[in-house]
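Re: the multi-chain job from yesterday

Posting the exact lines I submitted so nobody has to dig through the queue logs.
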Amino acid sequence: MPGWSRRARALPPGLIPDMRALILNGALAGDEGLRPIEEALGSALSARGCAVERIRLRDVFIAYCKGCFDCWVKTPGVCATKDGAGSITRAMARSDLIVLLSPITFGGYSSELKKVLDRSIGIVSPFFTRLHGEVHHKPRYARYPALLAIGVTEDRDPAEAQIFARLVDRNAINYHAPAHVAAIVSRDDSPGQIRTAIGRAVAQLLVQGGAA
Amino acid sequence: MTIARAVLLVGSAKPAGTSTSEVLGRYLCARLAERGVATTVLFVGRSPASRAERQLLAALADANLFVLATPVYVDSLPYLVTRTLEYVSQSAPKWRAPCAFAALINCGFPEPEQCRTALDIAQAFAARAGLDWAGGLALGEGGAIDGGPLERLGGLTRHVRAALDLAAAALAEGHPVPPAAIARLARLMMPARLYTLMGNIGWRRRAARNDLRSPLDARPFDLDAKG
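And the result, structure tokens for all chains:
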């Protein structure tokens, strides 16, 4: 889908002012290694004119998803459990770009990030439709944010990197993301290498979305 | 190698006795028990470092087979399962004997292939935790079972039971899940069009019982919406 943000379409190459980016940091308790990556992401997006909101998920009380589907059949679009997930899900739905920052955990996201993603299914409709030859949930909203996933690895395990990339591809389908990119950085990377990887990922996202 | 002790971890957050994951896992356990395997059924803990997690670790120390039965949430393992597996992996258990790990994963979409990423994550966990990957089983159309006993669903789940019978026979002997079991379980319980039609009707029926204040397709977080 060309044009991942209504506002991005008519802008000069590489500039995306007034766009809202939401960084969800899924670092586990005691892990400070993702903070410099979060800072670099915030700087890269701010430099392109984005209004950036950053949330370190472990600092927010969020209960687990009970699998009750009330967000579909009782309080449509809103989880019935009242805690920190409500405002985060609202921010997700209203953003132009969601950045998923997480230590790669068996190829997937950390539990801290997964907790809020599980609670966000009200963003889509319960009703089924066919997409890419498969059954998925219909979109609830007219537009959805792009996805940028940054996986942080200790040992660059190739199998886990592959799983991570495929997971982001799958999430993009189910979240109806108009553009998505998965990138991997290592905890051993220098600040320069991290900035380069993030800059490349953001540029790739803009190209995909037709805003570059 | 024959298996003496197996641990089933049910990954659903739903109350005990109500989830499709538990139904599938318990059926597999019953077949393992018929073959002389002592089985323990545990549920994912609701809070970090909970008694349930410590119980799991203790049970795994004596097990030769660890089976995870779980739904797919957002293309991967649910939060509670992810956190539990993080705990198991970080606790670096010293397995007293080689322990195999198998995953039995169901999703609410018709295509079992939509369990693929979750299965891959389960396999990657096995590698990190020092467990021997014994294979994964994927079931689509999980909503058709909806926590009901497999036997009572009759012909609808005949191939599901046959697949789990085959898997249990292999696992009890210390073998991986055979391709025939994976292929059988991948068969649809009903045509995808019928499943999605019934699913869509089911959502409306459940909503009708709830006396909704807003329509099912409400957009509470639209930019022009309040709040």
